[in-house]
Design a protein that fits this description.
Blueprint lengths: L2 H37 L25 E7 L2 E3 L3 E9 L5 E7 L6 E4 L4 E5 L7 E10 L4 E11 L11 E6 L8 E2 L5 E8 L6 E8 L2 E6 L5 E6 L7 E11 L4 E10 L1 H15 L1 E4 L4 E4 L1 E2 L11 E7 L5 H15 L3 E4 L8 E7 L8 E7 L5 E10 H5 L4 H14 L24 H10 L9
Parallel strand pairs: 2-8, 10-16, 19-24, 20-21, 20-22, 22-24
Antiparallel strand pairs: 1-3, 3-6, 4-7, 5-6, 7-8, 9-11, 11-14, 12-13, 12-15, 15-16, 17-18, 23-24
Helix pairs in contact: 2-6, 3-5
Length: 444
């Protein structure tokens, strides 16, 4: 075979190989397509569905909007505000709340994934709060705010304070001078003007509570024996408190001055309990006397055998009054008959001379020493009130122990009967202490 024949043969072979290869590729492609069709499980009744539109798997197309619905927009302290978060084009993964100003702090409470409540804090003045929700999504964060106006809670109506009426003592410097070792008794009435009732009455001096009592049918008495740590003009504050915590006050002026009180006591004694001697220019004391030691050494004997027993209680109350304010003690006996240094009390209820009671006092050694007293109770005394009966006996005992004359200072020793205060003023109490620290006939 020539060289050219050999070259031609190679070309033919190459062409045959290419045709063969093309057939192989065609066959392979046909098989591959058939395989795909067979995997569809199809046939004519199972066509291939169209491919869905592509959607982002990483949230790259999220563009949410956030707003807040709040109701109400104006509340009182302590009330709730309903909050609803409205979201479009997104699904939140976290929600956080904040308020401005941050103090005083309200309280956020979750109701469900989109609803909350906010309890308004306590404020003393109208305050505007900004409530802000921070909503976090997969790829972004949004904020929305709303304003809430908070008003102070309306205060419950305060109960009306009780009113206080003081009937003793009065705004009179002479009556209201106090000092050591005397008792200032404040008497009065309290009237509640609220739904509660007055269950406590107190007295304060120099910001210190000095007496306390519970009123009885609106009536009260406060016995004050401590008048503060400094002397001079000051106030007694009477404070009444009701069961619903309403408080009323009454202010009473006093003078705390031992020297002034002493001078008033001496003035009283010279006017009512002494004999003045012009030739001497001196006042001499006239007083009741027990032998040697006087009434402060032993009790004053009081005989009540001529008084029906049911009335003895009034004698006891009258004697307790004098003991309380002067320290003088008594020995009450259900006996009759005379005895030295005694006071006898008898009933003459069948007589009505126009006065409730009368007293005579006797002397034994000299005109300055009273050794006996005779008290008679008449029909007018029996007709008197329960308040009057012991006061009348105390008044008559005072004619033996303190003064034969009637005073004119609205005290126990006035002649007004039931209309006087029924009290021994502080300077009268002190006068008794001075009087019985001296002997009958001593000058003062």
């Amino acid at each position: 075979m020539t060289k050219d024949e050999r070259q031609g043969t190679k070309v033919v072979k190459a062409m045959l190989c290419q045709r063969f290869a093309g057939k192989v590729i065609f066959v392979v492609l046909t098989f591959f397509i058939a395989t795909i069709v067979g995997c569809s499980g199809g046939g004519k009744n199972n066509p291939i569905p169209p491919s869905p539109p592509s959607s982002p798997s990483n949230g790259s197309q999220e563009n949410p909007t956030v707003s807040i619905n709040a109701s109400p927009k104006e509340v009182n302290s302590g009330n709730d505000v309903s909050l609803e978060i409205v979201i479009q084009n997104g699904v939140p993964i976290n929600i956080e709340w904040a308020q401005s100003p941050s103090q005083p702090a309200g309280q956020f409470q979750k109701a469900d994934s989109r609803r909350w409540t906010w309890k308004a804090p306590s404020v003393s003045a109208r305050t505007i709060f900004i409530l802000t929700a921070t909503v976090t999504f997969l790829t972004t964060t949004r904020q929305a705010s709303t304003t809430i106006t908070v008003l102070p809670s309306p205060q419950p109506p305060q109960p009306n304070p009780p009113s206080i009426q003081v009937i003793y003592p009065w705004e009179d410097n002479k009556v209201n001078v106090v000092g050591d070792n005397v008792i200032l008794t404040v008497k009065g009435y309290v009237y509640s003007r609220s739904n509660g009732y007055v269950n406590k009455v107190e007295a304060y001096i120099d910001n210190e509570k000095v007496a306390e009592t519970i009123p009885n049918n609106d009536y009260f008495e406060l016995d004050i024996t401590k008048f503060g740590n400094r002397q001079g003009n000051k106030e007694v504050i009477i404070k009444a408190t009701t069961t619903d915590n309403a408080i009323g006050e009454y202010k009473l002026n006093i003078i705390y001055d031992n020297n002034y009180l002493y001078s008033l006591a001496v003035e009283f004694l010279r006017r009512y309990s002494c004999i003045y001697h012009e030739d001497e220019g001196r006042y001499r004391i006239v007083r009741f006397s027990n032998p040697i030691d006087g009434p402060y050494g032993r009790p004053v004997l009081v005989k009540v055998g001529l008084l029906p027993p049911e009335y003895h209680i009034y004698v006891q109350k009258a004697c307790e009054f004098w003991t309380k304010y002067t320290g003088i003690k008594f020995d009450i006996r259900n006996e009759t008959g005379p005895a030295p240094y005694m006071i006898g009390i008898a009933a003459k209820f069948d007589q009505d001379p126009g006065i409730g009671a009368g007293t005579q006092r006797g002397t034994q050694n000299d005109i300055y020493e009273i050794t006996s007293g005779s008290i008679v109770l008449y029909a007018g005394w029996v007709r008197g009130s329960e308040r009057y009966k012991p006061i009348a006996i105390a008044h008559e005992i005072g004619h033996v122990l303190l003064t034969a004359l009637h005073t004119q200072d609205n005290s126990l020793m006035d002649s007004k009967g039931e209309d006087n205060s029924g009290m021994l003023h502080t300077y009268q109490q002190f006068a008794c202490k001075i009087m019985y620290s001296k002997n009958p006939g001593d000058s003062i």
